[in-house]
Amino acid sequence: MDSREDLPRVSVETVKDWERLKSNYKQAALARLDGHLNGTTTLERDALVAHLNEFIDQTFKIAEPNLRINGHTFESLDQDGQNMEPFDEALDRRIWSLADTRLQWHKRIAEARRQTPVYLKTSLLDLLRQRQVDDNIKLVDEATTEESTNEGDDGILIPHYEQLRNGFQKTSALGMELDQVGYTATVIIAC
User: Fold this and answer.
1) pLDDT tens-digit series, residues 24-68
2) Among 2, 59, 50, which residue's Cα sits nearest to residue 30?
3) Distance in angstroms (rounded) separating the CA atoms of residues 67 and 14
């Protein structure tokens, strides 16, 4: 079914085809009625023919909203139906198919725009966590391969223990020098 209509319409090429269809239907109905009315009076026959014509006209009037002539709805036609260009049904179906495809692509793109940033965020966080775990494992491996035990006072393994110890010793020595300079400066000022 067409996405733009819930129910498809009956397609007819031209208004003349529609008029010919109505005329053929009316002739067939009148012929059938004449076959059943062999022994009736003309007054009865005229009354039945009038009712039959009214029924046929109402039937076709009811059918008009469900009719498509040359790709146009019956209501949108002008009175004579002559000012129309030929309608290409295949092209119309192709256009609506492309419009539906376009809508599906817009939905896919919108979904990707919503989901991709979340996916990238979780992937990057997982990679960063894995990198941190790998770095910690590498540091522990390096610390265990050093010649000294590199253990602190509590027996806990500390990475780069030698560098930390040397840095602390230098800092302590500088602090002691500053204390001596400060004490000397205080003595000189006091004198």
Assistant:
1) 999 999 999 888 887 778 888 888 899 999 999 999 899 888 888
2) 50
3) 11
What pLDDT is stored for residue 147 in this prediction? 45
- Residue whose tokens read 């819930």: 6
pTM: 0.41
Question: What b/e sequence results for 114-139 when a residue is b if at least 16 CB atoms lie within 10 Å of its CB, and e otherwise?
Answer: eeeeeeeeeeeeeeeeeeeeeeeeee
Closest CA to 11 of 62, 69, 93, 57: 69
Task: For residues 81 and 17, state if they share a domain.
Answer: yes
Instruction: Give the structural domain span for 133.
Output: 88-145
Q: Domain tally for the chain?
A: 3
Distance CA 31, CA 18 (A): 20
Which DSSP category does 151 fall into?
B
Q: Report the 10 Å Cβ neighbour count for 148.
A: 8
